[in-house]
Hints:
2 copies of one chain form a homodimer. Chain A is built from 7 helices and 2 strands. Chain A is an all-alpha fold. The first copy, chain A, has 2 domains: 9-74, Winged helix-like DNA-binding domain superfamily/Winged helix DNA-binding domain (Arc Repressor Mutant, subunit A); 79-146. The model of chain A has no long low-confidence stretch (mean pLDDT 91).
Amino acid sequence: MAKNYNLSASLEDYLEAILNLSSESSFARSKDIAKSLGVSRSSVTGAMHVLKEKGLANYKPYDYVTLTESGRSAAAEIARKHKILKSFFIDVLGVEGDVAQKAACKAEHELGPEIITKLLRFIEFVTQSSKNGFDLADEFQKFCKSSKQHV
Amino acid sequence: MAKNYNLSASLEDYLEAILNLSSESSFARSKDIAKSLGVSRSSVTGAMHVLKEKGLANYKPYDYVTLTESGRSAAAEIARKHKILKSFFIDVLGVEGDVAQKAACKAEHELGPEIITKLLRFIEFVTQSSKNGFDLADEFQKFCKSSKQHV
DNA sequence: TAATATAGTTAGCCTTCCCTAACTTTGCAA
DNA sequence: TTGCAAAGTTAGGGAAGGCTAACTATATTA
């Protein structure tokens, strides 16, 4: 079970970025974390101090950043949820990938656990439905085309 | 058309609270705004200064707060979106009213305009579907009951 | 190996939003 | 009309999160 580390949306982003970079190139450099999140290098340094304090990252000045065991599992859980949300935003709502990515990162915090839990199940449901003859994403696309925008 | 006043989630909450209080009791007092948002009275004072600066509220120390014409239309637009989102959270996802309310307030900012626009249309679509034989909310409820929780 | 470029850190500052404590204003009641 | 309670404001501060500029460490290259 993932513990509650009281992570802010921002810290989750850092965690996920480290996970992604680690899997891509097997190490995460401060500068690359900064680039992937669009923040300054100094902001990364600050965040690494916090993640180290929380026991989620192995941080040593002037060294690559790695995740601790806890950090890895927390990051994986975050990434899992983000992936599902992102797919809903892209495949059902039909927004662009980067927009979906950003929204997925923010969603959990701002919407809160209850909504996210339900929303994840809802997405699961929608996915199931498509397989059972009612392709919701598809129907929604049609709906969008047929009705004029007025929102 | 509603202009972009660069309102933070927090300022939108204040705006909406003023609108609601005004319609309920025809005037908005600092203390009631504070109570309805769960913040201190001094926080309200601060927010009122900002809303006045942006031309959205008529603020005079020691007087009731009212909305300007712009403030009223901005607040109405915010309230409209919140209402739709809230209904999705409650009627489709099945969460509690207060949880839904909070999430609706946060959603727009954190998710961004594209997602919200699409999401509002999606909710509209879901509503339409229910009328046309496929009651999505209902189906989802059944789905929730039939499948075990594992999120 | 020395010089320079790149990466990382630190210091100091800003913004937003909130808080408490203390003060001022207003309004009601004796 | 005075006098107190309630409402509102101000002052001061804190937590998050970000930034730039300047400094330090590391790495590359001539």
